Amino acid sequence: MDLQISVIHQIVELHFSDWIPQSSGVIELWVQEREYEEGDYYLTSRRHRKTSRSGSSPTLLPNTKGVKFDWLDFDTYDNPFISPNGKGGGEGHSIKAAFIISPPVLDALPLAQRFIDRVIEKGVRRIIFLGGSIQHCGDGPVLSQISEYIKGKGSDFNRLDEPNDSNLNAVKWTILRPSWFMENFSEMHHLYTIRDDNQIVSATGTGKIPFVSAEDIAIVAYKALIGKKTNGIERELVGMELLLRGDQLWSYDDIASTLTRILGRKITHVNMEEKDIVRGMVDEGVEEDLANVLVELDIAVKKGEEAQLGGDLELIIGRRGKGLIEYLEECARSGIWDTKGDVERGNTKFSE
């Protein structure tokens, strides 16, 4: 996942705002669009680094304003709380909820801890964290460590309804644990190999995955951010770890076959060795140690560890999640996989 831009969402009438710091270009923009549809206002924070392969920054919605934020620059951690006149605190942006995605570095826990502590000091009382479906390998262990750190800031929500039982300053938390994104094929690395080489490259073998759309994940994140009770789930999704999976299992061979039918040209799944996948990530600028960790997720899929259905998605959003065929057909109609030269790298709807 790309971890390069972030959003603060402010419900002006309530002087209550939700912040999505340093989030995935995919998830963040879907959350931003959902909040925009509800008529809310946002402050968006950007890293100073280039945010796409083309070197351009993602397009903001009309009611957004940017501030600088960088995980590696501690001096930027207070920027979202500073009002346009340079003042912070209650006179500035009163941020009560944050949607956090792990820092894009191998040793993410210390940065995450420092940042979480800071936003709590600034008054954040609801944290939604984007973890992962696999917890024992890849980036799963560090995501689990960050999740446990956030939980440690919370109170006993099993007894929250009892009088005088909760700490009013404690953090309400929700952990999202999605499976793999459908957007990997249209807004991430697979976009270019499908479009330019007619290939999907992985080390997953014939392993299957319950792909889930970023749009559906964003609906869950939005409900958690605003504290909305949903479909019989009490406590506003508070104190819950939510497994977010699609309702069908797909191998990359299956997807290549489906794309062949949809696009009218042969698409092939190329099953590579793990070391070759690592080399490719390093060539794209990923640290080698981090690339070695991330390839473990492909290996887990190859072993069948992602081949599971069920979870919490349908109950929360009140319908079936978006199907992968539906998503692939939508993408094909948009022309993003048109043959080489038709689309410039990086000029997709959502940036990498």
Automatic annotation (TrEMBL):
Q: Which SUPFAM superfamilies match?
A: NAD(P)-binding Rossmann-fold domains
Q: Which InterPro entries match?
A: Ergot_Alk_Oxidoreductase, Ergot_alkaloid_biosynthesis, NAD(P)-bd_dom_sf
Q: Which UniProt keywords apply?
A: Alkaloid metabolism, Oxidoreductase
Q: Does the keyword Lyase apply?
A: no
Gene Ontology molecular-function annotations: oxidoreductase activity
Task: Tell me where on the tree of life, at the top rank, the source sits.
Answer: Eukaryota
Provide the GO biological process annotations.
indole alkaloid biosynthetic process
Name the pathway.
Alkaloid biosynthesis; ergot alkaloid biosynthesis
* Family according to the record: Belongs to the fgaFS/easG family.
Q: Fetch the PANTHER family from UniProt.
A: PRESTALK A DIFFERENTIATION PROTEIN A, PTHR43162
Protein's name according to its UniProt entry = NAD(P)-binding domain-containing protein
